[in-house]
C-alpha cells in the first residue's frame, strides 16, 4: 500500500489512489473530531504529501523538525523531542477519529509506531442488492415493509461490524508488524515531559535580565542530564508566550510539567524563586525561594549552585517529578508505553525496599519493557542492575547460561550502545564490572558518570559505596553525606551505607546510631551489618536477633565467604575486620579466611 507497502498477513484491501488519499487528508484536517492543534495538522499534511511524492525515505525527525516546526539547522531530535511528542499525539488522535467520526470514511490514514511514514488503506462498503425487476415498491405494502426494514438494518449492522472488525484486525496487524525484532526496533516509550519557562526578571538592576537568562540556561542544562525525563529545548520554551496557560502548553507541547521562576535583584540582594506545576491540574508540586548576597558570592557561583539545587529537587530519581508520576501511574490504567515507563518507576521502588519480592516483579516488568521497546536504554540499564542483584544479593537467581553477571554486563553494554551518555547505563556498567573483578575500570566509568551528572543521587551513592569498598572510606562517606542531604527521601540506603563506613573506621557508636535509622528488614545484608555492629558493642541480644534473621535469608553464604568478600573488592585488612565482627556475632565464618592468610607474616 501507499506509504508502507503491503504486509504479509494483512487482509486484502484495495489500494487508495493518491487523489483519494488527498481527499481524505482534507476531510481530516477540516474535521473538528480530529483533536489536535494546527501544528499537528501541518505535520500530517507534510508526511502525506512527501509520501505521495515518492519521498518517504526522507521523512525523518530532523526534516520534520526543520520543515514543519521551524527549527533551525542545529535542531537535535534528542534534546528537543517535539517531533516524537507530536507524532504520539497525532497517532492517538487518528485512532480515536476512526473509531468515532471516521467509521464510514473511504480511506484510513495512520502513522505506525517506530517511524513517521503514514500508512494508507481503503474501506470498501458492501453494496446493497438492487430490487428485482417488477417488484413492488416497499411503501406499497405494509406487510413487505418490515422484512425490508429488518433486512436493511441487518445489512447495515454487517457493514458496521465488518468495518470495526477490519479496523481491529488492521490495528492488530500493525501491532504485530511493529513488535520488536532484531531488524526493527520501536522508539522508547515517552517519559514525562518538562518545559522550562524563561525565568522572569522582576529586579531593579540593569543586569537582572542577564541573570534571568543565564539561570534559565543553566537550569535547562542541569535538568537535561537526567535521562528519565524529557526536557524540551530552549528554542521550544522561548516560543511560549508569557500569557500561555497550562492547558495550552499541555495541548500544544504535550508537557506534563512546567518549571517556572523569577529573579528579583536589588542592591546587593538576590532572590530566586522556582516552582513546578502539573499542567493537567494546575497544582503546584514544588516551590522554593533562594536568597543570596551578591557581596559574598558572585552571580556565576550563585547561578550554578541554585541550578544544581533546582535540578536535583525536580529531576532526580526519587525527586518531585518521580513521586508525582508514581502516584499518577498507580491511579490510572496505563497504556502500553506508559506501562513500560512505569517499570522504571518500579525499579526505584525496588531500590528503596531491596526485597526479593520486588526484585522478581521488577525484573519481569523490565524484561517486558525491553521486549516491546528494545531501544529503551534506561530500561536495559536497570535490567542490568537487577541481573547483577541475582548474584550479589542472591535475589531470585536463574539457572543456566549465560550467568547473572554476564547478563548484567551484556545489558549494561547494550544500554551504552543505545545511549553513550546515559548515566543509568554507565552506573549499571560500573556495578557489573566492579562485581566481576574489574574495580579500576569500574571506578573510571563511575567518575565519568558523576562528571556527566553530579546531581544524580542514585548514581552518587552507588559510586560512593564502591569507593568505600576499595578502602577510600573518607571520600565515600563524604559523597554519601552529599547524597543524603540532597535526597533525604532515600535515607534508608544512604544511612545503611554510612553505617558500614562508620564500622570500617571503628566508630561503632556512630554506626549503631545510623543503623537504627534504617528500615530495610527484607534486605539480608542489613541484618548482617546490624549484627556485627551490635557484636562490637557487646549488645548480645540484638546481635543474636540480627544474626538469626540473616541466616534465615542467606543460610549458605558462609560456605563461600572468601568468594563473597573477593567479589566486593574489600582490602585484606577490611575483610579481616568484617570477619572479626562476624565471629563475635556468632556467624559460622571459616577459621582462617583468605584475607587473614594474606596478612600473615611470611615465614623465613
Task: Describe how the helices and strands are arranged.
Elements: H1 18-30, H2 38-52, H3 61-67, H4 82-99, E1 107-110, E2 119-122, H5 142-178, E3 193-196, E4 200-201, H6 208-223, E5 230-231, H7 234-238, H8 246-253, E6 257-266, E7 269-278, E8 284-293, H9 299-315, H10 320-330, H11 336-353, H12 356-372, H13 377-392, H14 404-418, H15 423-434, H16 439-452, H17 457-469, H18 473-486, H19 491-504, H20 508-515, H21 524-536, H22 540-553, H23 561-567, H24 572-584, H25 594-599
Parallel strand pairs: 3-5, 3-6, 4-6
Antiparallel strand pairs: 1-2, 6-7, 7-8
Helix pairs in contact: 1-2, 2-4, 6-9, 10-11, 11-12, 12-13, 13-14, 13-15, 14-15, 15-16, 15-17, 16-17, 17-18, 18-19, 19-20, 20-21, 21-22, 21-24
Total beta strands: 8
Q: Low-confidence parts lasting 5 or more residues at pLDDT below 50?
A: 1-13, 126-187, 332-336
Question: How big is the Rg?
Answer: 31 Å
| Mean pLDDT score | 81
Structural class: alpha/beta
**Helix proportion range:** 55-70%
Tell me the overall shape: globular
The helix tally amounts to 25
Q: How much strand?
A: 5-15%
Q: In angstroms, what separates the terminal alpha carbons?
A: 85 Å
Largest sheet: 6 strands, mixed
Structure description:
The chain is 56% helix and 8% strand. The protein is built from 25 helices and 8 strands. Helix 2 (38-52) packs across helix 4 and helix 6 (208-223) packs parallel to helix 9 (299-315). It is globular, with a radius of gyration of 31 Å.
